[in-house]
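User: Please fill in residues for this 131-position structure.
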């Protein structure tokens, strides 16, 4: 795999991992307990945690720890701003049930897009490694 392709793959996996981490953190607050069904919340957090572990392992396989830090720098800054905006929105809406519903739908949409991106990435990686 070319160096540029490898960096792009590292950045993609890093962004997906960061999205999972930020989502996990968001749904691990006291305010989320009050607004969301606890059984569904626990299932969501367990699933997010398992996926984060998978992405972390995948990132380590693609590149070493030093190189993976380089791949995470730029793209995750935008993602951090995105999640900061979510926290600001929830605070402005006083963590209302309606605000949490909107955020829940937004996160599910984002995670669905992430899943599709990851599947395409794995397919491309398979195509690149085929004889």
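Assistant: Residues filled in for all 131 positions:
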């Amino acid at each position: 795999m070319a160096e540029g392709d490898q960096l792009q793959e590292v950045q993609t996996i890093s962004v997906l991992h960061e999205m999972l981490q930020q989502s996990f953190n968001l749904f691990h607050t006291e305010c989320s307990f009050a607004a969301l069904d606890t059984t569904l919340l626990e299932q969501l957090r367990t699933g997010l945690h398992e996926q984060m572990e998978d992405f972390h392992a995948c990132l380590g396989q693609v590149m070493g720890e030093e190189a993976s830090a380089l791949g995470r720098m730029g793209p995750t800054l935008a993602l951090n701003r995105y999640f900061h905006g979510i926290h600001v929105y929830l605070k402005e809406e006083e963590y209302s049930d309606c605000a949490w519903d909107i955020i829940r739908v937004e996160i599910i949409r984002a995670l669905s897009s992430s899943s599709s991106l990851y599947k395409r990435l794995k397919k491309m990686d398979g195509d690149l490694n085929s004889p």
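For context: Residues 97-129 form the longest helix (33 residues).
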